[in-house]
Design a protein that fits this description.
By secondary structure, the chain is mostly beta strands. It has 3 helices and 16 strands. It has one domain (5-258): YmcC-like fold, CATH 2.40.360. Pfam families: DUF3108 (PF11306).
């Protein structure tokens, strides 16, 4: 498996999505069509990349069910864009009710590297059919990384306790894998949007080409009904990568901001 830019940082931007499929989902999604989230990714003190996540209403139906279209764009910026240009694009079509994916596609443009992948999810048969083959998941809830992020945001975390650990199945390129995450506790984080009450998590990560053996990944998501990730930090083989939110528009609920005195 080749590690594209998105895969390398997906655990920073989307890793809060590794909750268990057994957890209860809220009656309504915490997001809505028109929501746009923008992030910057820093390598040390340098802004290396930017990402945009959008929720759109879709005219496409799968199994005669209405869908949301989730769109993610990732691109390098500044000096990084001169030496290693990245323009990655991802689409995921999810059920408006249960938020599981029907169809996923990615268009990778990283320097001279090119790749286009597509996958069709049939949750009732636990099957994922992609241009790389047919795969069977262990349950009838398997996600791509984009849909996993939005599904996780709508989970009911009202009874979560420090030390709780969960897992979720996700499909990526040529197989189905599982990630685990631990809930750490609550913390206030200073962001571009002000000081925000957050829930802190620590997903498991695999050492190797990207992460050190002792690397730790921490994520902070808003402690409100939006469940928006506002910060993530992880040590890699050389240095550290930090994700920070730049802007959030079209949110369904008010942010858990703390007023400055």
């Amino acid at each position: 498996m080749r590690y594209t830019f998105f895969v390398a940082v997906a655990f920073v931007i989307l890793s809060l999505s590794v909750f268990s499929q057994e957890l209860p989902v809220k009656k309504e999604p915490v997001f809505q069509a028109g929501e746009v989230l923008e992030y910057k990714l820093r390598y040390g003190f340098i802004t290396a990349a930017e990402g945009t996540l959008k929720v759109l209403n879709s005219d496409l139906k799968f199994d005669d069910k209405p869908t949301y279209k989730l769109v993610v764009d990732a691109r390098t910026s500044g000096t990084f864009d001169i030496f290693y240009k990245i323009r990655d694009h991802y689409d995921s079509y999810i059920d408006k009710d249960n938020l599981t994916p029907y169809f996923y596609q990615e268009n990778i443009r990283e320097s001279s590297y090119r790749r286009e992948d597509k996958a069709r999810f049939t949750q009732s048969t636990k099957k994922v059919v992609s241009n790389r083959g047919t795969f069977t998941g262990p349950t009838n809830q398997t996600f791509d990384l984009v849909s996993a992020y939005y599904f996780a945001r709508s989970l009911d975390l009202s009874n979560i306790k420090s030390g709780d650990q969960f897992a979720l199945n996700y499909f990526l390129q040529d197989g189905i894998s599982q990630l685990k995450i631990e809930y750490i506790g609550k913390e206030v984080i200073k962001t571009k949007l002000g000081k925000i009450r957050c829930l802190k998590f620590s997903p498991s990560i695999q050492p190797g080409r990207i992460f050190r053996k002792d690397s730790k990944l921490y994520l902070w998501i808003t402690d409100d009904n939006n469940r928006v990730p506002v910060k993530a930090q992880v040590e890699i083989l050389v240095g550290a990568v930090t994700m920070e939110i730049k802007s959030a528009t079209g949110l369904k609920y008010p942010l858990a901001q703390i007023e400055e005195k």
